[in-house]
Every structure is written in C-alpha cells, then in structure tokens.
Amino acid sequence: MRPATSPLPRRQKCDHWSPCSPGSYAYRILSGGGKEKLAKICFEDELLISEEKGNVGRGINIAIVNCNCVINSTDHSEEMMAFIESAPQGSLLFMVTHDDGSARLNSNAKKLVESLGSKEIQNMKFRSSWAFIAAKGFKLPDDIEREKINHSDSKKNRYSGWPAEIQIEGCIPRNLM
Q1: How many structural domains compose the chain?
Q2: Which domain holds residue 119?
Q3: Taking every annotated instance into account, which residue ranges of this chain make up the domain ILEI/PANDER (predicted)?
Q4: Which of 97, 140, 143, 176 is the most buried (most CB within 10 A)?
C-alpha cells in the first residue's frame, strides 16, 4: 500500500502562501540581494519589475499602479522626483532597491519620499536593501506593512559585500483606490 500524499498547494497571486480576500489586490515587492538576486515588484500576479521583464536597474526601482507606468531605476534624483510627482491621485507606489539606492539620492528626493510616509529613506546607506509602499491621494490601512530596510554589514551580510534581500507582501482593499 502506498503512503497517502498531500496535494500540492494551489499557487496564489504574486506567490502568496494564502489568497487575498475577493475584495483585495495582492502585491509582493522584493529588493535585490547580492549581484544575482534582482529586485521584483508584483501586483495582482503581474510582474511589473523583474529580471524576466528586463527592466530592473541599479538604484531605486519604482512602479506606480493606477497609471500603467514603470520606471526601472533611478540613478538621478530629478528624474525620480518628476516621476513620483506625476503619479495621479489614487495611485499606489512600490519602491525597491537593487545594488545601491543611496549614493546619488539628493536631499530633495529623500524629502519627497519621506512626505509619502517613509521613515527609513533618510537612514538608507550604501547597498542597503530597502522596500517601501506608499499611496498618493488615499490612506493605506494601518495594518499594512509599508517599509523595511536591511543595512549592509560585513559581519552579517548574506552575500559578499551585500545584505540579504527583503520583501513585503500583502493585500490592499480594492475600495481604497
């Protein structure tokens, strides 16, 4: 007699372990980690930024949901600020770093991201892994994780000279946007 086997778990949107409720959008954002682990942004099971799409770059990668626009990387603060400021009201902004997002980020760009609710943008260091979710024109629910940061530390780095990647995933109620 063969031992009973469990069925394979059903794949959920953006590779969540459990499904979002029918009235919610699924998202998962993942910073880069090391040279080989590139950043990813997934919304409703669509990869907006990924190695597969070929649109991941050094710096801060940003996707804006609700305007069908993606900027793949921002080595230039002015370009990043113009992109964020052009996001229409009712948009979600997803931001993740790959390699280094701090070296060329000027104080005005940091202040703009801080005005969206970031608590860590001023603390970002060389090669920090960073992930951030913001809303423009509406308030995210208090129970949604908005930001994570992991600083490079030669004693704790997972990869040689690089911190581990970090991720934020969850569900956002559709009626907010």
Answers
A1: 1
A2: 13-171
A3: 58-137
A4: 97
